[in-house]
Design brief:
Blueprint: H1 22-38, H2 42-51, E1 56-61, H3 67-78, E2 82-86, H4 100-110, E3 113-118, H5 123-131, E4 140-145, H6 151-164, E5 175-179, H7 186-194, E6 202-206, H8 215-223, E7 227-231, H9 234-237, E8 243-246, H10 271-276, E9 282-284, H11 305-323, H12 327-331
Parallel strand pairs: 1-2, 1-3, 3-4, 5-6, 5-8, 6-7, 8-9
Helix pairs in contact: 1-6, 1-11, 3-11, 4-5, 6-7, 6-11
């Protein structure tokens, strides 16, 4: 039986990334890697199914989602957790006038954990605050809240970076570029908060001026003494990057079709940019993508976004294990079980 990593106590909800610490990130990465190893055999996969076989989860996704929903749904199934779902607001009693708070409290009566995605910022935080006041609270996982936070995406991004730089000293000391719609991209915003957990990281923000990283994030980085620069020219900064995190234009948040007025040709990644990128650097993207990454990049070993997507399911399994207190049970399972 492998040694259980030092546990981080006190995690009940996953709402935003600002509260995470390095110990917790390291533990979640260890849990995700352990689950992957156990799941490789049929016997191991069956054992994983027993871990959460007495648990139930609600997937409350009132904002359209494909990857995040499927990732969480399959993460639950890997652990044997039974799921209920609401994906259309019109099927909720909120259309009859029921308050959001009453709806969440109703869900909590039936399940052991609520995973929610909302177009409105702050909804997951409100649900967590409500849970902290009732007799039988259940954990809330924020699977995307408005244009502000997407914590489990940031966690899977950390896991991807950690695995990619495993033989290069980890994330510490790396130069990480973030390119695209940084103003409204909740994935990059959430990831920025986690950079406080690592030493000597340098961030490079590459965006059109109208979609630059917002001041609240830059203020946070300055307070945490995390160095960063801003540029609207990818070619000037690309040779120095250890990782480039590309994001699409978040046109769903447009008020007046402002995304259409931006010349995106300077913020795309293709063959020319591959030739400039370091041989051991990586390219990431939260998906779905548009024209910002050319498909020919997919076959390059530095393209990490498809692995990044797969990492999402394993990291979300780790989050479920942590919130449901199943860590010790996991580490009793052998990753080398003969089937």
């Amino acid at each position: 039986m492998a040694d259980i990593p030092v546990k981080y106590e006190g995690l009940f909800h996953v709402i935003n990334t600002a509260v995470f610490e390095r110990r917790l990130l390291d533990e979640l990465c260890s849990l995700a890697t352990r689950v992957r190893a156990v799941a490789k055999t049929r016997a191991g996969a069956r054992s994983l199914q027993e871990l959460g076989s007495n648990k139930r989860a609600m997937l409350y996704f009132t904002q359209p989602s494909t990857r995040t929903f499927l990732s969480f749904n399959n993460a639950c199934h890997l652990l044997g957790i039974r799921t209920s779902e609401i994906r259309d607001p019109s099927t909720s009693s909120e259309v009859k006038g029921e308050s959001f708070e009453d709806a969440i409290r109703t869900f909590s009566s039936y399940v052991d954990i609520i995973i929610m995605r909302s177009r409105e910022s702050g909804r997951a935080a409100s649900a967590a605050q409500l849970m902290d006041t009732i007799k039988r609270p259940v954990p809330i996982i924020n699977a995307g809240s408005g244009s502000d936070q997407h914590p489990t995406q940031a966690l899977l991004d950390i896991y991807t970076l950690d695995r990619s730089f495993l033989e290069r000293g980890g994330i510490d000391g790396k130069v990480i570029g973030m390119m695209g719609d940084l103003k409204r991209g909740r994935t990059v915003r959430s990831l920025c908060y986690l950079m406080k957990c690592y030493t000597s990281v340098h961030l490079v923000f590459i965006a059109p001026p109208d979609f630059a990283m917002q001041d609240d994030i830059k203020k946070f980085l300055k307070k945490q003494r995390i160095s960063f620069i801003e540029s609207d020219e990818l070619e000037e900064v690309l040779p120095e990057l250890d990782a480039l995190y590309v994001t699409r234009m978040q046109s769903e948040w447009d008020q007046r079709g402002e995304s259409k007025d931006i010349d995106l040709s300077k913020y795309t990644f293709g063959k020319e940019q591959l030739d400039t990128l370091k041989p051991d650097a990586i390219v990431m993207h939260p998906l779905p993508r548009g024209s910002e990454i050319e498909p020919l990049v997919d076959s390059d070993p530095r393209a990490m976004y498809w692995r990044q997507e797969r990492n999402g399911m394993w990291m979300r399994v780790a989050v479920l294990i942590k919130l449901l207190g199943l860590e010790e049970s996991l580490y009793k399972l052998s990753p080398v079980v003969n089937d």
